[in-house]
TrEMBL record:
This is Extracellular solute-binding protein. SUPFAM superfamilies: Periplasmic binding protein-like II (SSF53850). Belongs to the bacterial solute-binding protein 1 family. It comes from the Bacteria. It is found in: Cell envelope. Coiled coil: none annotated. One of its GO terms (cellular component) is cell envelope. InterPro entries: Bact_solute-bd_prot1, SBP. Keywords: Signal, Transport. Its main location: other.
Length: 489
């Protein structure tokens, strides 16, 4: 009996010891108070035109969500690239827009003037501004943007001309000497198509199905290398007749059967895939297209060069225009603006931009990222898209003019008549409008809108006139407005 009692006591003592070890409290000492509350995370909706499908980008955002001390959670909105601009516009118009998002350059002025965007000036320290090149801060600080800072370009988009070396060889062309003039480009397109009859090979492709993007790059941006642009910075007037040689070249290429068929409906992604398959000899691309092209794993040997000039005398008559890559902005209606700005800063940080650069997704112009040793060693041809002394940002052209056009009824964001101008180019290439007359009429329309805009309160024509403009050094000239203010002072 005594032994049984001793065993029972021993079991009770063991149980008590185990209880304390597991629960870290003696019996009967339970905490009757409420459990400690975990602070809910602040969710910030983010929409990006590119990047979101990249695994490394997804991982970086997930790490931020797990490690940032501010209990912020980034939620990436799933918006298809093909309909990104239209979807974003509908969301912003309805007041349901993302908190942080990338916006096309041509929409910036419209969004600022509609009070869609938050002024970031109160959140930026001088040290943060000093990361950005002078042109980026000057661009963001223009009176067009109400004197605030609503965005800061951190990366650029460059333009290049790519060609299929294998098709050049098959056509009897020197693969190490691509065309440098419009005439040589037309001849190369003809020879490639002739050599590729019956095997679906075409000399040149123009992805007109994406309208504005392809024509803005292939025609307007590439023309700057020949010193050609539809807006004269010296006089502050438009003249689209300067594009007659390029449009005539495309019409000739089409007439000789060297243009990839269905150009008005051809999507950029489709054209890039066809180039990667070896079916296209030449096309214009930007650094933004690079990743998509690499995804398609080009089969042929290919090259990357500067675009052909109008003729040999015009090569590098002007700097080749590069564009700020779709800037990031913060929604003025973001419920948690402070947290949204923190996310904006994270997406603009050296760490995140370096990741984009190493994935071939961006060409950052901050923090010396492009000088990182072996930063993109595994990406063939990517260095050929790096900005050079030939490339340059250009001053702004008038951006908010179509609101003055009596025939314009669309509520969509517009800039300098871009949409109607791009549609006009396509109509000319399709043979629907006569070349000379169409360019003359659009020139008159743009200048008429410019004159009407000049009677308004916000538009200052002098801000867009650069009497000493040098096309080879676009950022050195001072606009007329600054000159006049300087004289008064």
């Amino acid at each position: 009996m005594k032994r049984m009692l001793a065993v029972l006591c021993a079991l009770l003592i063991c149980g008590w010891v185990v209880y304390i070890a597991v629960y870290d409290r003696p019996p009967g000492k339970f905490d009757s108070g409420p459990a400690a509350e975990i602070s809910p995370k602040t969710q910030i909706k983010v929409a990006l035109h590119d990047w979101t499908q990249n695994l490394e980008v997804k991982n970086a955002i997930e790490r931020y969500n797990q490690t940032n001390p501010d209990q912020i959670e980034i939620l990436i909105m799933d918006i298809s690239t093909d309909v990104y601009n239209d979807t974003l516009n509908m969301l912003m118009t309805s007041g349901q827009g993302p908190d942080v998002f990338s916006v096309d350059n041509e929409w910036l002025a419209t969004y600022v003037n509609k009070d869609y965007l938050a002024n970031l000036s109160p959140y930026l320290e001088p040290a943060e501004l000093s990361r950005f090149p002078e042109w980026a801060v000057d661009l963001a600080d223009r009176s067009l943007f109400k004197g605030g800072i609503y965005f800061l370009p951190a990366s650029v988009e460059t333009l290049r001309f790519i060609y299929n070396k294998d098709l050049f060889r098959s056509a009897g062309l020197d693969p190490e000497h691509p065309p440098v003039t419009f005439a040589e480009m037309k001849d190369a397109a003809a020879r490639i198509s002739e050599a590729g009859v019956g095997v679906n090979k075409h000399g040149f492709a123009l992805a007109g199905g994406d309208g504005q993007e392809s024509l803005e790059t292939g025609l307007e941006m590439s023309g700057t290398y020949s010193g050609i642009y539809h807006y004269s910075y010296r006089t502050g007037r438009y003249d689209l007749s300067v594009y007659k040689p390029w449009l005539q070249m495309v019409l000739d290429i089409k007439a000789q059967g060297s243009l990839y068929p269905g150009e008005n409906l051809l999507k950029r992604d489709t054209a890039l895939r066809q180039f990667a398959e070896g079916n296209i000899g030449m096309m214009y691309v930007t650094s933004k297209d690079y990743v998509k092209l690499q995804e398609y794993m080009p089969k042929p040997e290919w090259g990357v060069v500067l675009p052909p000039a109008a003729d040999s005398s015009k090569a590098w008559a002007g700097a080749l225009m590069m564009m700020p890559q779709s800037p990031l902005v913060v929604n003025a209606l973001a419920p948690a603006r402070t947290e949204a700005v923190k996310v904006w800063k994270f997406l603009q940080s050296e760490e995140f931009l370096t990741l984009l650069y190493r994935q071939g997704l961006a060409l950052p112009v901050v923090d010396g990222i492009l000088d990182t040793p072996a930063g993109t060693g595994g990406l063939a041809h990517f260095k050929e898209f790096y900005p050079t002394q030939v490339d340059s940002i250009y001053p702004l052209t008038p951006q908010i003019m179509d609101q003055y056009d009596p025939s314009t009824v669309s509520i969509e964001p517009r800039a300098s008549g871009d949409r109607s101008r791009m549609q006009l180019y396509l109509q000319i290439i399709a043979g629907e409008k006569a070349l000379d007359q169409a360019l003359k009429e659009e020139t008159e329309r743009l200048n008429q809108m410019l004159d009407i805009a000049d009677t308004g309160y916000y538009f200052k024509r002098e801000e867009y006139i650069y009497p000493g403009f040098d096309p080879r050094h676009p950022l050195l000239a001072e606009n007329l407005l600054k000159s006049l203010r300087g004289r008064r002072n």
